[in-house]
Amino acid sequence: xxxGIITGTGTYALPGFAGGGPEPVATxxxxxxxxxxxxxxxxxxxxxxxxxxxxxxxxSNHVTHCANxxxxxxxxxxxxxxxxxxxxxDPGLELGSLVCFNDLHFLANRLANGExxxxxxxxxxxxxxxWIYERPFSDGLRxxxxxxxxxxxxxxxxxxxxxxxxxxxxxxxxxIRGLAACGVTAVSQTAGxxxxxxxxxxxxxxxxxxxxxxxxxxREPPTPVATLLEMMAASTEAFAAVLSAAVPxxxxxxxxxxxxxxxxxxx
Length: 267
What we know:
Layout: E1 3-7, E2 18-19, E3 23-27, E4 30-39, E5 44-50, H1 65-74, E6 80-88, E7 98-100, E8 103-105, E9 129-132, H2 139-152, E10 156-158, E11 161-164, H3 173-181, E12 186-188, H4 191-200, E13 205-214, H5 225-253, E14 260-263
Helix pairs in contact: 1-4, 2-5
């Protein structure tokens, strides 16, 4: 069974991926582009989705989250490893560091078009249910990422709260102060929706973040845009190194979804 990999800004193709190019996969929520092949050391079957596409064709508000996660579920993914570049809300983080998140701040729980972030948009959908959990990320997949990072010699912060923010604009100082008060470690504009939808789909999911800048007001002087772009480019190598070692571990771990989906119909 293949493992899903979702990459974001700066990582439009996986270095070392062997397989075909992205192909359309039809779902109830539209079309997703998925590349099928092998990746990792030793190689394992993977399903790769680039959130934004080559050349960053899709901004965060254009990413088709429901279609992406539904496609991975339809294709039989055993779980999903995702990566994202982030802005640090915790001033103690250094640029270029990695965080393996264990909590989520996504109060709005909405997609970019304003709709609630859920697969259950219709009453009496036989799949409908409540996702109930203590932590939203898969312990088994988090363990694979942490062990993979250790093997690759890449330092990773074990634990942190991922904050999902709406894009495509960056946040104000006041907004970041509010997130800091809630204990958010770092922010980006896409992974909250993936976390929730994978939870509803009972797909184990884990998220690795790369710190490219300090969010507004976190440190003075502000991170220069040139530094942000340099860090985005550097993230690809770090992500590839960790994922290459983590994917075989994740495949062998047979991870369980975090929590349960309490449904109202017999399955």
